[in-house]
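Below is how a single chain appears once it has passed through the pipeline. First comes the sequence as given, then the structure the pipeline wrote out for it. We keep one example in the README because the format questions we get most often are answered faster by looking than by reading.
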Amino acid sequence: MSKLDSARRIVSGHITPPIVSLLAKTPLTPNSITWIGFLLTVGAAALVVTGHLVTAGIVVLAAGLFDMLDGALARATGRVTRFGGILDSTLDRLSEAVLLLGMLYVFAREGQAAAALLAGVTMLGSFLVSYIRARVEVLGIDGKVGLFTRPERVIILALGLLLSHFGNALVIALAVIAFFSYYTVGQRLFHAWRQTRD
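Resulting structure:
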């Protein structure tokens, strides 16, 4: 387990339990938490398109919190289902696509072709990270290896939005996400190759 993965687990272990305890006392289901997180991200994309980037960054962080809570609530209340996992993964991919497409649209509208291309490349990289994990886990191989996963992408993207008034912070955030996403793709492919070469 990497140091980054350990830090991620420590942070989520301190943040989610008290919130999950409260949510467990409400009628909210894990799937409804998943949908709330997705709808928040759609709202963030709309804020991006309308030029409210800092507010969009705050909403992205809120959506990221809901993304951490759905699985934790399912485990805490004994409502883990196969469909819940599929729904979560599907809406995670759609969330990233909607947000990055919103940025691509804004860059294209403003005539920033290179930045628009970067948004597209970033979206493809994030999809590949998730796709490889799903593909190798079908073969019974651990697919969670790699430096940069969804939580890191969400945090960096939110920071880029929050700091968007300072130069090219959003473009820099996308470049960081793209670079480390493809690095993680390489890590996961190498791991899969080592596990399947025998």
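The chain has a mean pLDDT of 89.

See the next section for the split statistics.
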